[in-house]
Amino acid sequence: MRVFIIKANEAHTDFDFSLKDLPGTSGRIDLICRALNAAFHLSHSFRKNVRVYVTFLGPPDPPKTIRFEGPKIRPKILNPDEISIAKVIGKALKVGRNIRNPTKEVEVLPGIFISRMTFEDVVRRNVKMNLYLLEEGGKDISNLVFPKDNLAFILGDHLGLTKEDLSFLEGIAEKISIGPKAYLTSHVISFVNIYLDRVGIP
Amino acid sequence: MRVFIIKANEAHTDFDFSLKDLPGTSGRIDLICRALNAAFHLSHSFRKNVRVYVTFLGPPDPPKTIRFEGPKIRPKILNPDEISIAKVIGKALKVGRNIRNPTKEVEVLPGIFISRMTFEDVVRRNVKMNLYLLEEGGKDISNLVFPKDNLAFILGDHLGLTKEDLSFLEGIAEKISIGPKAYLTSHVISFVNIYLDRVGIP
After folding, report:
1. Is B23 on the interface with A (CB under 8 A)?
2. In CATH, what is the architecture of B2-198?
3. Which residues participate in S-adenosyl-L-methionine binding (chains A, B) (predicted)?
């Protein structure tokens, strides 16, 4: 399984945004939609071996975490375009309104779960995985020998991770880098997915 | 300069589509928007050394080609999200209605040009570049030594290139591949951009 853990610092935690203007009204859920496209979509095919956690930390009711479980998702539900994916996110956030228990996950659609987990909760849940933190200045990806399974990659959004996040992840996740520039979250996921295909990781 | 040449087999050639449903009404201009995002956007920065040609071949008035000229585009005009980019494309297609001369380019916005060029016209215009055709089964990208400049990459959309296209490109463009699966156009562009950064191509 390939896991991507994304911290969305400003992404709205209820479906209070306009699908006509995701960048301006949703706390950059457009970016999350592209990240999900990059994580799951192949040409005329779907990556069943991928799991994505996105933690939403914007207004009005943070935190919310949506888990996208590749083996269970019906590919037709998660289309490649931003608006379709934003609608799925919106639907999940609506269901999330009524959750009280901080660790309970509710299945909104097959393979799509919402909860009140924090970013730290998500990382702790994955602490037995081989955890990598995508960070400028990390060890170059070509210098790593990846295990065949249980890989989890942690990424920030346009605002990145805070000092507190980095301090929390110290010693838990290995800092790695994919290239000499600062890349968009979705581009990093595309590159990592294709890189892992190239080196024969299932 | 890095050039990406994209053939969009069904993309509409007038602004007759709905921004609310790009996949269903535009001949997959959503895919083109993500390809442009992948070509130009970095985290908080813009790739000024990139040029993209997209040839639109869908109804009602094919062909139309839009050229996006990185050095001249104002980054604020080409936002990362699909809807913003689709609006720019729509604006260009509107201007394209009145072009009669098949080789004339009209500048719609700084660095954004529309013409009636065909896909073959675009390839011929770039024939002095080092031309690469992204194709499953092509030579693996790691087996190439890229020249430092004048690289042009040809890509299809969800429908790919036709037998006629491949026959036309035979001997003009070298077939290359980025990995063992069939990837989305935007993911290929992300990968190629980052790969070129990694091997030190400006």
Report:
1. yes
2. 3-Layer(aba) Sandwich (3.40)
3. 134, 156
